[in-house]
């Protein structure tokens, strides 16, 4: 009996040794955040004496909601390193890395695809439900990627999640005067400051020199043609000369343009105009309810009741 038990134990040990080569050494950085070097295109995650480094030289991280699919290459390369001591940002980012820690082993990724899903990061103002885009989150995932190890073996991942890179963005100023002007021929209404404009191709039937009844404003819906609302941010000084032309001038150049999403009756994108007698003329207060502005696949909300401004007219 002792001999049989001994043989069983020997067999189990032998099988364990044979299976050792089949054990996969998982790369685990799931709880570690992505960091970015300030002076180069390296993205990295560090954990004690290990580092996962992504050279993203060939990647443009966009400022809009989109999806990119790229090939793993020399300019878009992922490596997994082992060091003989604790890793810091200086270990990864410095042009001349510190002498310690020293790299003791490295796996290099070859082949495969890089999937980058970019979405806007927004802050919402609770008092009026308006939102601002304050950054963009770039979720980076590798598909069908192979790591070549230093011992000649390989390790393959069908899906390998690198993580999220969050890049801050300057929110649009929207610093308007609320004092509206109107073009004499097109009846287009606009508000401007030195670098941005909010232009409304308003339905002329909403601006009438007659006072509206109490709590009964004239209403319309934002659309792509009638009541089209456009936001523009410019690179140079913006003056009134830009407006009321048959063709917009080329300067100042437009940096960003956002178009309002068409409204839905009694729900979103509603324009309300309240007209009151003002001196020898009239004052038209324009409010945009639940307006949403969009550029590409990104959007933000003006809020529940955005006061576009006041327009003065005379008979």
What attributes does this structure have?
315 residues, mainly beta, nine-stranded antiparallel beta sheet, seven-stranded antiparallel beta sheet, 2 helices, 7% helix, elongated, disordered N terminus
Classify the helix fraction into a percent range: under 10%
Alpha carbon gyration radius: 30 Å
The backbone outline, from C-alpha atoms, is: elongated
What is the average of the pLDDT values? 91
SSE topology string = HEEEEEHEEEEEEEEEEEEEEE
Number of helices: 2
Descriptive report:
With 315 residues, this protein is mostly beta strands. 7% of the residues lie in helices and 48% in strands. It is built from 2 helices and 20 strands. The chain has helices spanning 2-19, 89-93, and strands spanning 35-36, 42-47, 50-56, 66-71, 76-83, 103-110, 113-125, 130-148, 154-168, 181-182, 189-192, 196-201, 218-221, 228-234, 254-260, 270-278, 281-289, 291-295, 298-303, 306-314. The strands form 3 sheets. Strands 1, 2, 3, 4, 5, 6, 7, 8 and 9 form a 9-stranded antiparallel beta sheet that branches. A hairpin with a 5-residue loop joins strand 1 and strand 2. It starts with a helix and ends with a strand. 21% of the residues are buried. Residues 1-24 have low confidence and may be disordered.
């Amino acid at each position: 009996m002792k001999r049989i038990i001994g043989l069983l134990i020997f067999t189990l040990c032998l099988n364990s040794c044979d299976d050792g080569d089949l054990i996969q050494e998982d790369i685990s950085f799931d709880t570690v955040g992505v960091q970015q070097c300030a002076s180069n295109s390296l993205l990295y995650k560090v954990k004690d004496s290990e580092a996962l480094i992504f050279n993203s030289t060939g990647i443009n991280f966009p400022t809009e909601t989109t999806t990119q699919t790229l090939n793993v290459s020399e300019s878009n390369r992922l490596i997994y390193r082992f060091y003989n001591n604790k890793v810091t940002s200086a270990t990864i980012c410095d042009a001349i890395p510190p002498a310690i820690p020293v790299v003791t082993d490295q796996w290099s990724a070859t082949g495969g695809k890089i999937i980058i899903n970019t979405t806007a990061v927004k802050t919402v103002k609770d008092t009026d439900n308006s939102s601002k885009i304050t950054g963009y989150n770039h979720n980076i995932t590798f598909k069908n990627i192979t790591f070549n190890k230093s011992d000649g073996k390989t390790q393959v991942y069908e899906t390998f999640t690198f993580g999220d890179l969050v890049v801050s963005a300057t929110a649009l100023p929207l610093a308007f005067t609320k004092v509206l002007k109107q073009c004499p021929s097109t009846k287009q209404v606009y508000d401007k400051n030195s670098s941005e404009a909010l232009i409304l191709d308003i339905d002329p039937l909403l601006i009438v020199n007659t006072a509206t009844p109490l709590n009964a404003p004239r209403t319309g819906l934002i659309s792509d043609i009638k009541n089209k609302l456009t936001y523009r941010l410019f690179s140079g000084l913006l003056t009134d000369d830009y407006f009321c032309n048959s063709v917009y001038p080329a300067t100042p150049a437009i940096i960003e343009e956002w178009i309002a999403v068409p409204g839905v009756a009694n729900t979103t994108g509603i324009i309300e105009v309240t007209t009151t007698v003002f001196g020898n003329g009239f004052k038209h207060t324009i409010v945009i309810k639940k307006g949403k502005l969009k550029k590409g696949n990104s959007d933000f909300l003006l809020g529940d009741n955005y006061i576009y401004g006041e327009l003065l007219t005379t008979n």
